[in-house]
Amino acid sequence: EIVMTQSPATLSVSPGERVTLSCRASQSVRNNLAWYQQKPGQAPRLLIYGASTRATGIPARFSGSGSGTEFTLTISSLQSEDFAVYFCQHFNVWPPYSFGQGTKLEIK
Amino acid sequence: EVQLLESGGSLVRPGRSLRLACAASGFSFPNYAMTWVRQAPGKGLEWVSGISGGGEHTYYADSVKGRFTISRDNSKNTLFLHMSSLRAGDTAVYYCGKDRSTMVTLIEDWGQGTLVTVSA
Lengths: 108, 120
Hints:
Chain A contains no helices and 10 strands. Chain A has 108 residues and is mainly β. In chain B, strands 2, 4, 5, 6, 9, 10 and 11 form a 7-stranded mixed sheet that branches. The radius of gyration of chain B is 13 Å and the shape is globular. The A-B interface holds A 1, 32, 34, 36, 38, 42-46, 49, 55, 87, 89, 91, 94-102 and B 37, 44-47, 50, 59-62, 95, 100, 104-113.
């Protein structure tokens, strides 16, 4: 089973800053990688799929990159509504499609 | 608008069974794979099980294989998760999710979840 590792676990940032979150796969998942955002008490929301394609309605300040085993999610200018937990998930070949453990963005 | 409404979550004793349901609307249900994902209190997301649009392909996490069964009724736009031999470690909010295609890949739309608590 492919293991997804996210770093850091927590990131303290200020509104307006640019932030980059990392996700690493234990073996290549090509570009079969998705990012989700989850706010407290809510279901997750799809942000990015195919490593770099924004889902419907996702603002342009969110961007994804990478392929193989190394991926990043970048938020160009943090807004107050972006403080949340972010998860990556691979969907390469066959399930199970594991998630990373999450990165929590908190206000500095 | 896609809507996914989970139901069936409750407090259940260890070793017992429970069936979750997810009522779908706002899209052509048979054309999309569906997935169950769970989240233990204060923890991350765990992929549990997926089923293709036609129901012919099913997949499970190792942690639930042999105990959980995913199924769907395309005539009623409903997804199910039958859970048996429940353990304390199965305590979580269970989310159903709609895929982007007929095969199981990622989750494009999520329900609000239903809480399963396994405790004596």
